[in-house]
Amino acid sequence: MRFGYHVGVSGPPVSAILNGIDTGCDAIQMFPGSPQQWGTTEVGDEEALEFAEAKRSSGIDPVLLHSIYLVNMAAPSEQIFKRSVASLSSALQKAERLGAAAVITHIGNHKGEGEEYGVRRIAGAVTECFERTGGEAMLLLETTAGAGTSIGNTFEQFGAVFDASGWPARLGFCMDTCHVFAAGYDIRTPEGIEGVLEEMERFIGLDRLRAIHMNDSKGELGSHLDRHAHIGEGEIGLAAFSYIVNHPALRDLPAIVELPHESPEDPDDLALLRSL
Ligand SMILES: [Zn+2]
Ligand SMILES: [Zn+2]
After folding, report:
1. CA of residue 46 to ligand 2 center, whole Å
2. How far is the CA of 227 from the centre of ligand 2 (A)?
3. Residue 159's CB: how many other CB atoms inside 10 A?
4. In terms of residue numbers, what domain contains 144?
5. What gap in Å lies between CA 43 and CA 46, rounded to an integer?
6. Which ligand is nearest to the CA of 142?
7. Which of 88, 111, 122, 274 has the highest CB neighbour number within 10 Å of its CB?
8. Structure confidence at residue 41 (pLDDT)
9. Least distant ligand from the CA of 183
C-alpha cells in the first residue's frame, strides 16, 4: 500500500508535493481549489511542468484530487447541480494537467427527493462530466457515512449509480473506512471486512476500487457521524487497520489519511500504518 496524507496547497500546485515530501508521503491528496468556494484557478504551463518535475523526483504517486465540499451531484437545485458539474469537470481537467490519477468526490444529497431521484441525478452529472472532459483521470465516488439524505452509504446504491451511468471506464470508487463504519458496516473483524469486500465485488467490482481513505472513527458503528479519528484511536481500532493494510485485494491501492498532521503533537499515522 502507498500511504499519504491529504496535504494543503499553500501557493502554486507544487507546494502540495513539497508538503507531501515533508510529511513522508508516498501518495498525496489535495484540493483543486479553495474547498468552500466555487470556481477554480487555472494551472499555467510553467506550474504544470514544475509539478510534474517535483512529482517525478519525489516519487510521490499517485496524486489524487478531492473535490470541493460544495459539490452535490444529486442536488434538486438546478443551479447547484450545474455548478457541481462545472466544478468536477474543471477538477478533472486540472487532474489531467497535473498528472493526477483521479478526482475523488462525495456523491451527494437528494434533499428529500428520494433515493431513485438521487441516483438518476448523480448518473446524469457523471455522464456530463465525462462528456465535457477527455483524458485518463478517473472520477472516484466516495462512500458516505449515511447522514441525512446522502446517497452512497451502501454498495448497492453505488451499484445503482454505476448501472444508471452505463459503467463508463473512468468511473471508480473510493472507500473511506470511517464512513463505511459509520454507515453501519462492522469492519472491526476480518469477517466484517470480508463481508464488505464481497458486497463491493457483487455490486460494483473490486477493479473499480481505486483508493482508500484511511481514517479511524470517533462515531460508533452505524452512528452516521463523519468524524475522523487518528488511526487506532477511534472506534474501529488498530487490529482492523492491520487486516486492511495486509489484505491481498487491497495491497496495491493508495491509502490517504485525512487527519491533521502539521503539529508535533499530532500522531504519525503514516508511520503507524507502515508498522502494520
Ligand atoms: Zn474521505
Ligand atoms: Zn469523512
Report:
1. 33
2. 6
3. 17
4. 2-275
5. 8
6. 1
7. 122
8. 79
9. 2
Number of domains in the chain: 1
Q: What are phi and psi of 210, to 5 degrees?
A: -120, -5
Report how far ligand 2's centroid is from the alpha carbon of 236 (Å): 14
Give me the pLDDT at residue 263, please: 87
Distance (angstroms) between ligand 1 centre and the Cα of 103 equals 12
pTM to 2 decimals? 0.96
| pLDDT averaged over 10-residue windows placed end to end, the chain, 276 residues | 96 95 97 86 93 97 96 96 96 96 94 92 97 96 88 90 97 97 96 97 97 98 96 97 97 96 92 97
Q: What is the CATH number of the domain that holds 132?
A: 3.20.20.150
Helix axes 45-58, 14-22, angle to 10 degrees: 20
Torsion angle, alpha carbons of 38, 44, 48, 49, to 10:
-170
How remote is the C-alpha of 16 from its chain's centroid? 17
CA of 66 to the centre of ligand 1 (A): 9
